[in-house]
Write a structure and sequence with these properties.
alpha/beta; TIM Barrel; eight-stranded parallel β-barrel; 11 helices; 9 strands
Length: 345
């Protein structure tokens, strides 16, 4: 059945990439047109069903010069093996479950982090964590700000790398905001035509802080002849292994708790040699199923890319404005495996 859908899915993926920026298209193993209907719909309810004050997304008018928009209760018996194995380590996911609010403060269209003022952002994120604990999470919830710090661009820029690094002042601001509120900071990287190696070096001083962690977005890792927003990117195991080795080295040299490394995925092509991705001491690696759409396709992709190909930790992303009938916390906690990382965009 998967093979029947492949050609249709690839054609639909290309059409969605052309229509929308950033692209969030599902597809290598097939979908149905019904599951994709109204995928661009906005105004999805916020995580808290009692709170309907999600603001209208901001526009490019708020961007600095040169920036363009990029793109049932849980049963505790469901995860004992993974908890026991993880408990040997000192990291976040060994003992807690992560819930993050994703985006960039310069453009609300990139995610919820940029739609809310900072006091509201902190309050909403704390409430999200509380909702998961009330829904029966077997581990305490750890809230985190998920900040896109390297943004893929439609234009090449002066260096031809199709990416823009965010100013240090902005990263510092959100690092301090997270620390002051007992939250983590996830630095999310879209490399464009640059490399993981080149883009992580400027972030090393932040990654040396105990509360700062890393996410990589293969969707925007482009080959030399590709352009973000036109074609779907790929990230090799070599690049991901480089990032995990860098984090492990920081943990060892600075005596820090384990670092979280998040890798986004919603098609096979995004991680072409996924089987070669390595785990290592000092790093907790979570693959987050990143596609939006209806419940059916999200469940199927979670099964394909997370359950069937589990590397270490499991994750899923929810989209406030683009998911159709977004899952409630108790429904997410009922997934198999139970997600260790839940990202909200």
């Amino acid at each position: 059945m998967k093979l029947i859908y492949v050609l249709f899915s690839l054609a639909l993926a290309l059409a969605l990439i052309v229509v929308a920026w950033p692209p969030k298209v599902d597809g290598d193993r097939g979908t149905s047109s019904q599951e994709f209907s109204n995928v661009q719909a906005s105004g999805a309810p916020p995580l808290d069903p009692l709170d309907n004050d999600v603001p209208t997304a901001s526009t490019d008018a708020n961007l600095p010069d040169g920036v363009t928009s990029a793109p049932a209760q849980e049963e505790t018996i469901a995860e004992p093996e993974r908890v026991v194995a993880a408990a040997q380590h000192s990291g976040i996911l060994a003992n807690r479950r992560l819930v993050t609010y994703y985006g960039n403060p310069f453009d609300g269209r990139m995610g919820i982090l940029g739609e809310l003022d900072q006091p509201t952002l902190i309050a909403r994120l704390r409430r999200a964590a509380a909702l998961y604990e009330a829904a029966g999470s077997a581990r305490p919830m750890q809230p985190a700000l998920h900040l896109i710090v390297t943004v893929a661009q439609e234009d090449a820029g002066r260096d031809g790398m199709y990416r823009l690094r965010m100013p240090e002042s902005m990263i510092e601001e959100y690092s301090h905001l997270a620390a002051a509120n007992d939250m983590l900071l996830i630095l999310d990287v879209q490399v464009g035509r640059s490399t993981v190696q080149a883009e992580l070096e400027p972030l090393r001083p932040y990654l040396e802080r105990p509360h700062v962690h890393l996410a990589l977005d293969p969707e925007f890792d482009m080959w030399a002849d590709q352009q973000p927003g036109i074609e779907l990117g790929h990230m090799t195991a070599e690049e991901i292994n480089y990032a995990s080795a860098l984090l492990a080295g920081i943990v060892a040299s600075k005596g820090l708790p384990d670092k979280v490394l998040i890798v986004h995925q919603f098609t096979d092509r995004m991680l072409p040699d996924k089987q070669l991705i390595q785990t290592r001491p000092g790093v907790e690696l979570a693959v987050v199923m990143d596609g939006f759409g209806g419940r059916g396709i999200k469940l199927k992709h979670y099964e394909w890319y997370v359950k069937d190909e589990l590397i270490q930790y499991a994750g899923i992303k929810m989209f406030f404005r683009q998911d159709i009938d977004m899952f409630a916390p108790e429904e997410i906690l009922a997934l198999d495996p139970v997600p260790d990382v839940i990202v909200y965009q």
